[in-house]
Amino acid sequence: MVMSLAAVCALASSVVASTAAGSTQYCVPYTGSGIPPGSGIPPWGFHASQSFGGGISGYSHGWGDVNLDTNWISGEICQEVYGADQPIRMIAVRLGPRIIYHSHYAQMWGYPGNLVIAVVRVIWSEDPRCRVGTRGHVTMYASYNGVRSDSIQFFLNAGCRDENHLYHGPEVDAQVPPL
Amino acid sequence: MESERRPWERCEAKPTGRIRDVRDNAGPVNDLAGLRRIVSGLAADGILTWVFGGWAEELRRLAPPRQHRDIDLLYPGSDFRPVDRLIEHRRLQAIPAKRFAHKRALVMNDVMVELFLVRTDEDGASYTMFWERLRYDWPRDVLGFVDGVAVASASALRRYRADHAAVRRAAAP
Questions:
Q1: Chain center to CA of B54
Q2: CA distance A153 to chain B (A)
Q3: Which of B14-23, B29-38, B67-76 has maximum average pLDDT?
Q4: Distance (Å, rounded) from C-alpha A45 to C-alpha A140?
Q5: Average pLDDT over all residues of chain A
Q6: Contacts of B46 in chain A (CB under 8 A)
Q7: I need a surface site. Which of A5, A36, A116, B42 has the fewest CB within 10 A?
Q8: What is the ipTM metric for this complex?
Q9: This prediction's pTM
């Protein structure tokens, strides 16, 4: 599992919600380093940035609580996609409460690690085709044994499929239970 | 996706133009080691799958060991875009006649590998939409793990075995 701190991302954001002008704004600026929210190690959490090609990049992070014994998870994930002369597009999803699958012995990217697959629901969207309430799931994987090959992947349904991005590589830093 | 060779490519034979069947007595091409190579190879490219069908029944001890003609896998996703990207990127041999919204079929190491899409609905339940006609609901524990391999749960296997004929009758074109 990767426990090291990663460089501060210039586009780092936070899923800590604030209320402004009657609407809830997710993905507000976050300038911490390491795994959010920045004070200690959360039950689960990550931050990730990735180039998707075509001049488009993304940033995502999230954190929350989890109980593997009862297959229960909570928390939120925010994603910003930007570049290619397009306005920044933001979505946020809420996890849970159900964990579809979890394993301490998963194999992904050629390495063993912890894997959690959880149900998600879109709670904020700046993609006009991606409606709030749309369901899907997210795969969170953290390698261990000193290997850094964490990944986060969205699998959203219906009009949110354009937001289905994979984050994998050195710019992904994830804490996925069990510790 | 990286460009180095993947585990299933290490022992890849020259394309034969057809799918080898174990009944050809052409060699042990669909054994447990090969199954593990294919599943781990897909996972090495970010495609997480769970063993399903006859292989899963054997691994779950629901059926005695036997020869397997193909490999069935469950793929949790919202669609097959990641799989299609992998097929293109790795130049994998897809089987166009078995390409449906709920299924992709490939030939890997001369063995046919079928991936069934397992989606998540508005209530967080797992299901497969067969031929866009029939929604088949999986038990909540559909994704499991046994002997170091991600395998569909016994309850999912039993239920699908019991329902398989009805699913074919109701949904197949």
A1: 11
A2: 9
A3: B67-76
A4: 9
A5: 83
A6: 108-109, 151, 153, 166, 168
A7: A5
A8: 0.78
A9: 0.82
